[in-house]
Amino acid sequence: xxxxxxxxxxxxxxxxxxxxxxxxxxxxxxxxxxxxxxxxxxxxxxxxxxxxxxxxxxxxxxxxxxxxxxxxxxxxxxxxxxxxxxxxxxxxxxxxxxxxxxxxxxxxxxxxxxxxxxxxxxxxxxxxxxxxxxxxxxxxxxxxxxxxxxxxxxxxxxxxxxxxxxxxxxxxxxxxxxxxxxxxxxxxxxxxxxxxxxxxxxxxxxxxxxxxxxxxxxxxxxxxxxxxxxxxx
Length: 233
Description:
Elements lengths: L3 H11 L5 E3 L5 E4 L4 E5 L5 E4 L8 E4 L3 H9 L2 H10 L10 H22 L3 E3 L1 H9 L5 E4 L5 H13 L7 E2 L4 H8 L6 E4 L2 H18 L13 E2 L7
């Protein structure tokens, strides 16, 4: 005889557990992908660790750059990190906000470059349009300085092919996008692999969330949940 309760338990066991961390400034919690790790180095200096790979102790933040800069300027960030690391020997650079933003920006550019080298990304208006109309595009991206006509034309092609309503506007101009991909005059790019599209979308979303609503297209705060969890790692 079927036992729905046992089936629910079995399904729960199959679902991967998502580790949560707590923002040391707001006490809200979120996943490792939603928050940003700050690492404590051997010299007691604090540095952004946006890939969460640095050895040693770390603490997590889930705020915008403006909020981080304000907390740092008032000494609140240092106090929070001293509590998280359980030591007074914590040196927070005055430009921690700028360093974190630069690291998130580089992570997004690196992700695009990796997908290009893996063959998951195409560029060129004609190639992108053909792929979009035939339903082969999982994510459409436009450089910040892309012309309205070209952007709208490719957005329409993507919709016709069953894609989203409009492409994502990259926060930087074509010169930076071209350098990241190692190609010339990249204005529009398309991710043709769903998993690659998800990775690129996530990298750009983290960067935008940190820069905030007044610092780039569609910025905003990470989606965090109230509660408590371990704040260091």
